[in-house]
Each structure stands twice: as structure tokens, then as C-alpha cells.
User: What shape does this take?
Amino acid sequence: MASIFSKIVNGEIPSYKIAEDNNYYAFLDINPLAKGHTLVIPKKEVDYIFDIDDILLGGIMIFAKKVAHAIEKVTPCKRIGIAVLGLEVPHAHIHLVPINGANDIDFSKPKLKLSAEEFNEITAKIKEAFQTV
Ligand code: 5GP
Assistant: This one.
């Protein structure tokens, strides 16, 4: 059965899409730690990130780098933190989280509740920034 993230890639489940290319897809995490918290995934469904073949694994970091710079441009933060957990969804993904300190990327913290309007607004800003990074 297709993972929930494959369904997102295929458009069967909606997402706040930031960017995609032939191999990768970036979209907002629905339960964000911070405004702009984005997930970057390979379109190819692989559960564990360290099972991804070398070329695809290298490429995801290059794609994530561009997404991270776009988030950085429109979000007040010191850095874009990066994390891989994969405890919930069995489709490899990288979390990109705007951070000002280590606590901002503590996944045991309560998540933000954003309205659809807020999700749409930050999506539009990151997407626009993505065009120029
Ligand atoms: P992990 O597998 O890294 O432990 O956590 C999975 C992440 O995916 C969580 O941060 C969760 O909020 C996010 N997530 C789970 N289901 C969906 C979904 O249907 N849409 C989006 N945008 N994010 C999801």
C-alpha cells in the first residue's frame, strides 16, 4: 500500500507544496514545530533514509539545501535545523525547521496549530523565495 507521503506526491492527499522536481518533493509539515517547518522526501518510496541509494541520498541534500535557503529568506530564524526521525511515517523524509535555539527543534514539544490561511501564507512566501535561491 502506498505511504501517506506517496499519496501526497500523487495528489491523492492535499499538501502545502513548496517545490518538487523529478525525484524530490517538499511540503509543509501539518504539525509544525515552527512556521515554515518543511518535509523533504524522495518521490521513490523508501522507508529508512539510510536504505536510499547513494545517488538519490546525495541529491536529497542538494534539493533540501535550496528549500532551506528559501525558508531562511522568509522566516525570522538563526538557522534551518535539520532532523531525520522517521518514527511515524515509513517514507524517508528530512525535517527542515527554522530555529533560534536547540529547544526549537525538540520534537517532544507541543506542535503549532496553524490555520489554513497561515499555512497558505507561509507556503506562498517560501515558494516565491524558492524561485530566486
Ligand atoms: P516522523 O516520521 O519524522 O517521526 O514524523 C512524521 C512527520 O510527518 C510528523 O512531523 C507529522 O506531523 C508529519 N505528517 C504526518 N502525516 C502528515 C500528512 O498527512 N501531511 C503532512 N503535511 N505532514 C504529515
